[in-house]
Write a structure and sequence with these properties.
Length: about 450
């Protein structure tokens, strides 16, 4: 072999040896880095880093149970948190947290978590006071070790059973999916909502989008009773005083779910309506309208007496072709306007009233069919004087405490009896007087819910 050939073989061996050495060194570094990183992920330092980063993001003090690793999958038995002063989150408790780590992302010193599954999440909310964003514990400096990750990234979390308690509502047994990306979106499915003063209703789906100072209710759909539905959309403020602007619509809701117990055996049917809820500078206002086209009145004292008096079964079960009103509730006061209640050929009530929960003040026009008025001595010409729309009309004022309101129509009817009875021979006049004295007040009590 020539000297030149020996030199080429010698240099080739040197290059091969160097390449192999570099490869082995790189492999050693990778293996060392992997083992070091693996040890770090399974240690307390990584768990503490997760607590700090999640706590800072949610503005809570997080206590995460020890992590149990199986390959790239990780499990924690529980996590609990207490909200920082001024935040919307008061506290939460979770059970059985499972996720995984994308090993490829470790090369960029980032722990990229796979979707986090939570078996159970109980969340308590409170009214936020609007502390500036970013206040609280300063961000922890990342570890200087080159194999330690700089941050933890989570893009999706799912709760199989979610319960939320808040001053304004309760939500039980819902499923939740939280997506963290360009926007923070929360999707709730199933479960049951309960708002103060309203019937509980089942949830189909609610989609929320979280912004720095407010939550956008993109859509919320639910079920009320058998066949009723409700949907809502709007904005709820999170900074400073509680603020909200929500639009709501309900369809085919059973009236018994909206009425006090004393009404439920009397007024039956379904209601449809819309409402607009606003809260600005601690001034809460709910305004809207409600209507029903299939409502009916059951047997009430005055209708029973009229049925007995006239012998007509029309008074046994009175269908209402119209039942509607506009309502406004503000600072505890409820105002009903454009009230319209009508049963074709029998009666109609129009007017408005206001109540603060203790007293009532209302003005009405009561229309009675001339056919019915023939059986009420004195009522036709001396009290019900106006003739309009197929009814004879009389004004009525209702006032006083809700438990025992006063109305002025019965007294005028009673005052009209003597002369009418003397002028006409009416069989059963004593029974008619009983209708007026006992029944008129009772029917008003029933219709107005006293």
């Amino acid at each position: 072999m020539s000297a030149r050939a020996r030199r080429q073989v010698s240099w080739g061996g040197v290059f091969f040896g160097l390449a192999l050495a570099l490869f082995l060194a790189a492999l050693a570094v990778v293996l060392f880095g992997y083992m070091a990183l693996r040890g770090y992920l399974r240690g307390e330092d990584f768990r503490k880093m997760v607590e700090r980063q999640v706590g800072r993001t949610l503005r809570v003090e997080l206590d995460l149970a020890p992590l149990a690793w199986t390959g790239s999958s990780v499990y924690a038995e529980s996590a609990a948190a207490r909200g920082q002063p001024g935040t919307a989150v008061k506290s939460f408790q979770t059970r059985d947290l499972r996720t995984g780590v994308d090993l490829r992302a470790l090369l960029t010193r980032e722990v990229h978590l796979q979707p986090l599954d939570i078996a159970r999440l109980e969340l308590d909310l409170q009214a936020p006071t609007g502390l500036p964003h970013g206040s609280g514990e300063p961000a922890a400096r990342p570890s200087s070790a080159w194999w330690h990750p700089k941050r933890v990234r989570l893009e999706e979390a799912r709760a199989q059973r979610l319960t939320v308690h808040a001053p304004w509502f309760d939500l039980t047994d819902s499923q939740a999916t939280l997506k963290l990306g360009g926007t923070t979106d929360l999707v709730l499915t199933g479960g049951r909502w309960q708002f103060p003063g309203l019937p509980a209703f089942g949830q189909d789906e609610t989609r929320l989008r979280f912004m720095p100072d407010e939550v956008h209710v993109l859509e919320s759909r639910g079920r009320v009773g058998d066949g009723g539905s409700i949907q809502a959309s709007g904005v709820i403020g999170l900074a400073g005083a509680e603020e909200a602007d929500l639009q709501m619509e309900g369809r085919d809701i059973d009236l018994k779910l909206l009425l006090p117990p004393a009404w439920r055996g009397i007024l039956q049917g379904h209601a449809t309506g819309t409402a607009h809820y606003t809260n600005e500078k601690d001034t809460r206002r709910l305004a809207g309208s409600i209507r029903s086209t299939d409502a009916s009145l059951g047997v009430i004292p005055v209708l029973q007496l009229l049925r007995d008096f006239t012998g007509s079964e029309r008074f046994a079960h009175v269908p209402l072709q119209e039942l509607s009103a506009d309502f406004t509730r503000e600072q505890g006061d409820l105002t009903l306007r454009h009230i319209a209640i009508e049963s074709n050929g029998l009666l109609r009530l129009e007017g408005e009233c206001r109540t603060d929960g203790q007293t009532i003040d209302g003005t009405f026009q009561v229309g009675i069919s001339p056919t019915v008025l023939r059986w009420i001595p004195g009522g036709y010409g001396k009290v019900f004087e106006e003739n309009r729309g197929g009814f004879r009309w009389a004004p009525m004022r209702v006032s006083g405490p809700l438990s025992h309101p006063r109305e002025d129509l019965s007294a005028r009817l009673v005052a009209a009896i003597p002369a009418e009875v003397l002028d006409r021979t009416v069989e059963g006049a004593g029974q008619a007087e009983k209708v007026i004295k006992e029944g008129a007040s009772r029917v008003l009590d029933t219709i107005l819910g006293f």
